[in-house]
Design a protein that fits this description.
346 residues, 43% helix, 10% strand, 12 helices, alpha/beta
Length: 346
């Protein structure tokens, strides 16, 4: 791990809330994942469970009725809300009522939930159904109006690709595209590939084209940029790629964003360290989520999430194996935080 990554992890560590008796339920993170349809139930589960395992207090999934029936069987720790609807009838209904095909009406109860939430993850298991996409568009606009941080991934990026104005200029948004999604976003934004301008040129150009949105270009190294500041996560990654790993990332990033709010609300103080800036912490939250999800070897051979799971599972590694290692990854990177101190200890 480079000296730069070590220094960044030290900053991220300052965002981690200590374990204090005075905290009450909900203060350290209320997160909702919007996604989950008839064909995709694993993705929102992995995202929400990563958030919960990392340490947010309350983790919600907002999905279709068909997906809700399945996701509820995965874990009783998640709060599952069957508020989304698909254009096609799902397994619980063969006829879609007229009121269930109006995206404004479908979005309304979700928008009413926003006051209870700190962060929204949108995209895992969303699919490309027109009604689902139209509903999410309305939720994004409402969340943006309320200043709620957004983590957009998977099929939510289809909306951004079609209408860059949906997130343009919104500095509270983080996009986490894979290689294909990143190329599509660059094409939509008119960002070319000039290899002579450095390996971070494209992510910086895309972030600038989006008016300061934070973009994570995932790869051998993760490049994170808002167009002005670029962070590079060079922690070693596991060699196995399976569906759902990106969902672990989104949930992890969301938890750090929720902790950012707790930090800025001064639920605890650390007078011995300089105060982190609010906008700086957007990139740090993305870096923290990336570091948790990726695989690295720390001093004394301490290992975190992806590599630890890969060492156990090898080629058979699946996203659920990463979920099981989230806490071990956190401990390896940041150590424990007790109620007597406001900073983490390795």
């Amino acid at each position: 791990m480079s000296a730069a990554s070590t220094a960044l992890l030290s900053k991220v560590r300052r965002m981690v809330p200590p374990m204090m008796d005075k905290f009450h339920k909900g203060q350290l993170g209320r997160i909702a994942v919007i996604g989950g349809s008839q064909d995709y139930t694993g993705a929102p589960y992995f995202s929400a469970m990563a958030s919960a395992r990392l340490g947010c207090d309350l983790s919600h999934v907002i999905c279709t009725p068909a997906a809700a029936a399945v996701i509820k069987t995965y874990s009783p720790n998640l709060m599952v809300h069957p508020l989304m609807r698909q254009s096609q009838s799902d397994t619980q209904s063969t006829i879609i009522q007229q009121e269930d095909s109006n995206p404004d009406k479908i979005a309304l109860p979700i928008i009413e939930m926003l006051a209870r939430l700190h962060v929204l993850v949108i995209g895992p298991g969303l699919g490309r159904d027109p009604l689902m996409q139209d509903t999410v568009e309305r939720v994004i606009r409402a969340a943006r109006a309320k200043g709620i941080p957004l983590v957009l991934d998977a099929d939510a990026l289809q909306l951004v690709q079609k209408d860059l104005e949906l997130v343009k200029g919104y500095s509270e948004a983080i996009l986490t595209p894979n290689v294909v999604e990143f190329d599509r976003l660059c094409k939509a934004a008119g960002v070319g590939n000039d290899e002579n301008r450095g390996e971070t040129h494209r992510v910086e150009a895309l972030a600038n084209a989006l008016g300061g949105v934070t973009v994570m270009q995932k790869g051998r190294q993760d490049f994170i940029s808002n167009g002005t500041v670029t962070l590079i996560d060079d922690l070693e990654g596991g060699k196995k790629r399976s569906g759902g790993q990106g969902d672990t990332l989104t949930g992890s990033v969301a938890t750090f964003l929720a902790w950012r709010k707790a930090y800025n609300d001064q639920l605890w103080t650390d007078p011995e360290t300089p105060h982190l800036e609010k906008q700086e912490m957007i990139g740090l939250a993305a870096f923290g989520g990336s570091a948790i999800t990726r695989n690295a070897l720390l001093p004394r051979a301490i290992q975190e999430c992806s590599r630890l799971a890969f060492l156990k599972r090898g080629r058979s590694l699946q996203a659920s194996d990463l979920t099981d290692e989230i806490h071990n990854a956190f401990m390896a990177l940041f150590g424990e935080v007790d109620e007597e101190e406001s900073s983490s200890k390795l």
